[in-house]
Every structure is written in C-alpha cells, then in structure tokens.
Design a protein that fits this description.
globular; single chain; 5 helices; mainly alpha
Length: 114
C-alpha cells in the first residue's frame, strides 16, 4: 500500500511532532531527543498509513525541533492539562479544537517556506 505523502500529510505530521515536543516540555522541562522524535514520526506514519521518503521525514523532524519553541512562545502551552485538550481520547490531535487548527496553520506556513 502506497499512501501519497502530500502537503497536507506533511503539515499534519509536523503538527503532531510539534505537539509531541510541547508535551515533552510540559512533562519533563526538556525537548524530545532526536531518537524519540524519529520514533514519534513512526507512530504517526503507522497511524496514518503514510510512507514518506527518509529525507522528507527527517526534514519534518528537524522542522519540528525548530518550530516547537516558537509555538510554545506563541500559544503558552506549558501544562499537561492545556495540552491534553488538543488530543482525542485516542491520542490523535483533535482538529475540531481551534487551537489545533492554528498550530496546524503555522506548520503549513513553515512547510511552504521550506
């Protein structure tokens, strides 16, 4: 099965990785290590049936590292409680939450500049 890894899929993956970074910061006071981000990207890929090329995936992981501090500064998502509202009970981002849409839009903008 080959799933197209288009601009929307890239933005969703980046948004998920940024959210993962924010959760790590709220829980531990530190950003995710690279190996954890790579693992998180695999979780997202498996859940979404996506199969991006390795360089594309690594590029998105790097963008998440760069973008997460900006998202944190902009949206002040510093507590686990605030971050929990961004997710469904199944651990997926809840795109019905306006803040998730705003973060997604920032991610899509970042990808367009890349």
């Amino acid at each position: 099965m080959t799933t197209i890894f288009d601009d929307e899929a890239r933005a969703e993956m980046l948004c998920y990785l940024v959210a993962g970074e924010l959760v790590a910061m709220a829980r531990t006071g530190d950003w995710l290590r690279t190996d954890h981000l790579v693992e998180l990207s695999l979780v997202w890929m498996h859940a979404n049936g996506a199969q991006p090329e390795w360089p594309d995936r690594i590029s998105i992981v790097r963008m998440a590292v760069d973008l997460a501090p900006d998202i944190l500064a902009t949206f002040e998502l510093r507590t686990e409680k605030a971050l929990a509202s961004l997710f469904t009970d199944g651990g997926r981002l809840d795109y019905r939450v306006p803040l998730v849409g705003e973060i997604h839009d920032r991610c899509a903008e970042r990808l367009q500049r890349h």
